[in-house]
Design goal:
Largest sheet: none
Mean pLDDT: 77
Low-confidence stretches: none
Number of domains: 2
Radius of gyration: 18 Å
Structural class: mainly alpha
Shape: extended
Distance between the termini: 37 Å
């Protein structure tokens, strides 16, 4: 749902700093909740290939399938499960 917000242009830098702080707090909460700090090193430890692990929750992955995300469609078609 869209929400109309008024922004005081004079407070621009302050608002961007506040948004940045809130995003950092959210990222930290997600990192702790989903144990990302343990998942990614575990995936990287599986191979010496130069890979970049992307970790999604089941809900995120399902949503990308429903949205017909091009990357996920290709993964489902050509990818292999490695867990």
């Amino acid at each position: 749902m869209h929400k109309l917000c008024r922004i005081d242009i004079g407070r621009g830098k302050e608002i961007y700093k506040e948004i940045d702080n809130k995003l950092r707090e959210l990222a930290e909460k997600l990192r702790v909740r989903y144990n990302v700090s343990k998942i990614i090193p575990a995936v990287l430890g599986l191979t010496d290939l130069p890979i970049e692990p992307w970790c999604y929750t089941e809900e995120e992955f399902r949503a990308m399938i429903i949205d017909k995300n091009d990357f996920i469609t290709e993964v489902l078609k050509d990818g292999k499960r490695i867990f």
